[in-house]
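To the wet lab folks,

You asked to see what we're planning to order before we commit. Fair enough. Below is the target structure as tokens, and below that is the sequence we designed to fit it. If anything looks off to you, flag it before the synthesis order goes out.
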């Protein structure tokens, strides 16, 4: 499952690290980072759905999963 809001990075793994390395870490980039201004006539969620999702505009909605269900499998912390 590929989602364009997910990014990954590969941290440095030192030869003397005491813990097993995490080779790839994942993070979410919120959609509001790409919208510099609010365009006119953006589509809107119905009121009840907007209250559940926390935003009125689908363009600004991002589903933030719990840490345990993140893309990397286990929590990254």
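Sequence we intend to order:
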């Amino acid at each position: 499952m590929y989602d364009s809001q997910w990014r990954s990075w590969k941290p440095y793994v030192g030869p003397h690290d005491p813990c097993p390395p995490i080779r790839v870490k994942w993070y979410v980039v919120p959609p509001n980072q790409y919208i510099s201004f609010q365009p006119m006539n953006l589509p809107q969620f119905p009121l009840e759905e907007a209250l559940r999702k926390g935003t009125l505009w689908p363009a600004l909605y991002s589903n933030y999963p719990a840490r345990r269900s993140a893309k990397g499998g286990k929590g990254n912390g």
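Structural context that might help your review: The longest strand covers residues 6-9. The helical segments are 47-53.

Thanks,
Computational group
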